[in-house]
Amino acid sequence: MPNISGIVKSIQDIMRKDAGTYGDAQRLEQLGWMFFLKIFDDREKEMQLLRDAYRSPLPENLRWSAWAADEEGITGEALLDFVNNTLLPSLKSLTVAGDKISGLIRMSFEDANNYMKNGTLMRQVINKINAIDFNASDDRHMFGDIYEKLLKDLQSAGNAGEFYPPRAVTRFIVEQVDPRLGETILDPACGTGGFLVCAIEHLRKQARSEADEQTIQDCFAGIEKKHLPHVLCITNLLLHGIDVPANVRHDNTLARPLRDWGPRERVEVVVTNPPFGGMEEDGIEANFPAEFRTRETADLFLVLLMKILKPCGRAGLVLPDGTLFGEGVKTRIKEALLS
Is the same domain home to 109 and 254? Predict the structure, then answer.
């Protein structure tokens, strides 16, 4: 098994030499779409073996295996030209009528950019990524490890509200909430999909038939406000055997008035780590009843959870210390929770 932190470190060292990727944010975004294509390609190879009639939603020349897999393949100016003028524009306008996964790929690449300015360095990065085979890996969490490693670097750049709970914490919370086959699961602030992946694995232990597996494919939903974590969440779900993760939306959960959440949208289980420490944009609090209006994101998510859980529903979530012991709105939220 390749040494992940070693690979990631060497990728970052190469990227630091490139004039275009001068900050951790650019490096992370660049790696986001590159990993997406590599993981999707590995997944497609598996699908072609398992399903005789499998057809790729990507034109042959855009598949990772066509332009990136050969270590001696295109490099330098030719590689930059292909990525900037063929690959990214084509993925941003990808359409295959009635095909959900191509719509998902198009949405994932809406805001994707190539920041690298040196095609030779880009080829070196691609060759490093090729050292990871996401199919053969005994440890499907490898992607999570890569991402967590990159995030630590991003967090040291000081992004408010971006706390990604360690896997042991997400697993513990999912075990306590104990989702069952047939229940609906939601993460309204799903980040890179850590809670959803944990919930899916928890359900797989209960699966006994192909019908059960199909239930798992469709029983969860996620919403993520930021583009990059959203793309990484879709990648993470593909990696964990979800064929078309179309039920993960790129949206701000709190931008919708609370009263608009109807009874039919209620779920049995919520597992989430809402962003906290951050303030919502102006006007968002107006979507909530007067007694609960605040711009503290974690408080608004708590109010939302009370609305979207079914009677006897269960939620497990990560909150900042002291959430239930503040003044004003926090006191009223605590009263509502207790009653």
Answer: no
